[in-house]
From TrEMBL:
<dbReference type="GO" id="GO:0052906">
    <property type="term" value="F:tRNA (guanine(37)-N1)-methyltransferase activity"/>
</dbReference>
<dbReference type="InterPro" id="IPR029028">
    <property type="entry name" value="Alpha/beta_knot_MTases"/>
</dbReference>
<feature type="binding site">
    <location>
        <begin position="136"/>
        <end position="141"/>
    </location>
    <ligand>
        <name>S-adenosyl-L-methionine</name>
    </ligand>
</feature>
<keyword id="KW-0808">Transferase</keyword>
<dbReference type="GO" id="GO:0032259">
    <property type="term" value="P:methylation"/>
</dbReference>
<keyword id="KW-0489">Methyltransferase</keyword>
<dbReference type="InterPro" id="IPR029026">
    <property type="entry name" value="tRNA_m1G_MTases_N"/>
</dbReference>
<dbReference type="InterPro" id="IPR002649">
    <property type="entry name" value="tRNA_m1G_MeTrfase_TrmD"/>
</dbReference>
<keyword id="KW-0963">Cytoplasm</keyword>
<dbReference type="Pfam" id="PF01746">
    <property type="entry name" value="tRNA_m1G_MT"/>
</dbReference>
<protein>
    <recommendedName>
        <fullName>tRNA (guanine-N(1)-)-methyltransferase</fullName>
        <ecNumber>2.1.1.228</ecNumber>
    </recommendedName>
</protein>
<dbReference type="InterPro" id="IPR016009">
    <property type="entry name" value="tRNA_MeTrfase_TRMD/TRM10"/>
</dbReference>
<dbReference type="InterPro" id="IPR023148">
    <property type="entry name" value="tRNA_m1G_MeTrfase_C_sf"/>
</dbReference>
<comment type="subunit">
    <text>Homodimer.</text>
</comment>
<keyword id="KW-0949">S-adenosyl-L-methionine</keyword>
<feature type="domain" description="tRNA methyltransferase TRMD/TRM10-type">
    <location>
        <begin position="1"/>
        <end position="232"/>
    </location>
</feature>
<keyword id="KW-0819">tRNA processing</keyword>
């Protein structure tokens, strides 16, 4: 998979060299290219922003550098990338969207600063490419670089051969399947006792059926406690009789 990121703070994307994403790059599983937007600004101050039409506080990112940057990146590859525009006014970034984007061969991220990018850029590329405006949550950050790090990590761990154990995202919170509407429950490892606290007996029983039931019950309890909205909007058929007894 190829990922391009256009930013005025290329150094903000340094964490893409670390850990899981860094290893995926080193193994050639991910081709990540970070570009400095100012390379496509032509005045002596490399200006990328200007005052908003209609007045008001803050600055808006100018369309010309973004247009030149995106044209040059799009022309540099084969096929058509999906353009991912981080913005608090976008559609929510969910595990479902991470799965969908992980199946695309090429993504171009456009993290902005100031009050965002001149609207015409989104319209221009939206007319000929798949452009997704995406929010990572109901809060406003100073720039889109942190949202890009969040999205790239969520997407990269779904790519075949990136996680050491391909099964490990199967039981995650929000993972598609029988537990799709439930958060993951608590997890434990050795030692069996720590500061006087043991672990649930069922996890030592070796009884796979009972362990699976316990995991589902704990996931259900945690979801009711932390995210009742997930249960409310799920299809009632997703829950069995034992769930409903909790
Ligand atoms: N005035 C904009 C608004 O209220 O929608 C906020 C602009 S914000 C200060 C600057 C940039 O940070 C955005 O254009 C976007 O790239 C990024 N950003 C901030 N919060 C975000 C969020 N929750 N999700 C995705 N991107 C975000």
């Amino acid at each position: 998979m190829r990922l391009d990121v256009v930013t005025i703070f290329p150094e903000y994307l340094e964490p893409l060299n670390v850990s899981l994403v860094g290893k995926a790059r080193a193994r050639g599983r991910l081709d990540v290219r970070v570009h400095d937007l100012r390379a496509w600004a032509h005045d002596k101050h490399n200006t990328v922003d200007d005052t908003p039409y209609g007045g008001g506080p803050g600055m808006v990112m100018k369309p010309e550098p973004w247009g030149e940057a995106l044209d040059s990146i799009i022309e540099s590859g084969e096929g058509r990338p999906v353009i991912v525009v981080p913005t608090p006014s976008g559609r929510p970034f969910t595990q479902e969207l991470a799965v969908e984007l992980s199946e695309k061969p090429w993504l171009v991220f456009t993290p902005a600063r100031y009050e965002g990018i001149d609207r015409r850029v989104i319209e221009e590329y939206g007319d000929r490419l798949d452009v997704r405006e995406v929010s990572i949550g109901d809060y406003v950050l100073a720039g889109g670089e942190a949202p890009v790090l969040v999205m790239v990590e969520a997407i990269a761990r779904l790519l075949p051969g990136v996680l050491g154990n391909a099964e490990s995202h199967r039981d995650d919170s929000f993972a598609p399947g029988a537990m799709a509407d439930l958060l993951e429950g608590p997890v434990y490892t050795k030692p069996p006792e720590w500061r006087g606290r043991g672990i649930p007996d069922v996890l030592l029983s070796g009884h796979h059926g009972k362990i699976a039931r316990w995991r589902r019950d704990e996931a259900f309890r945690r979801t009711v406690r932390n995210r009742p909205d997930l249960i409310e909007r799920a299809d009632p058929a997703a829950f069995d009789k034992k769930d409903r007894e909790i």
